[in-house]
Amino acid sequence: MDGLNEIFLIECMKENLAHARHVENERMMFNSIFAALVGGSLAIASQLNDKIIIVTIIGILMMVNIICLTFTKRWNKVFKNHYALAQKIYLSFLNMESPTAIDAGEKNQDINRLYYFDNRLNENPVKTYISTGKYFIIYNTVIFVLLTCSLFYFISY
């Protein structure tokens, strides 16, 4: 492959990694703002005496939580796509360096040689690996369950 194509591929890899990082930052920022919104809204709701207003506040929070969960799933998909494409470009460079010396098993181990692409390689194989994207899904689900419990609590008192 000529130098111009290599430079182009390196820039494509950098752009995909930058986009993946941007998507991750969006996901973290949106979830942080949502957590602050939930905490503040529940603090206000706990001081109110009108059940209709409390139920309305919690209902709105539950709808926003569903939107947040939908965004998180979308961001997870976009992040994985950008990261996988950057990883594919990196693997093509590994193939250019030594097309016969690196077999499939070594490629997976060697993928982190210059950039940390796969966190699972450093995890204990006995443990179950949960990706960051799945943690965000679990986080949003737990908040929804807590909002549901809060709704039942405020309705019952």
Describe the structure.
With 157 residues, this protein is an all-alpha fold. The chain has one domain. It has four helices and no strands. Helix 2 (51-97) runs antiparallel to helix 4 (132-156). The longest helix is centred in the middle third of the chain and has 47 residues, at 51-97.
List keywords for this structure.
4 helices; 157 residues
Strand segment count: 0
Report the helical percentage. Answer: over 70%
**Number of helical segments with 4 or more residues:** 4
Distance between the termini: 72 Å
General shape: elongated
Structural class designation: mainly alpha
Q: What amount of the residues lies in strands?
A: under 5%
Itemize the secondary structure elements and their pairings.
Elements: H1 3-47, H2 51-97, H3 104-110, H4 132-156
Helix pairs in contact: 1-2, 1-4, 2-4
Short description:
The protein has 157 residues and is mainly α. It contains four helices and no strands. It has one domain (3-156).
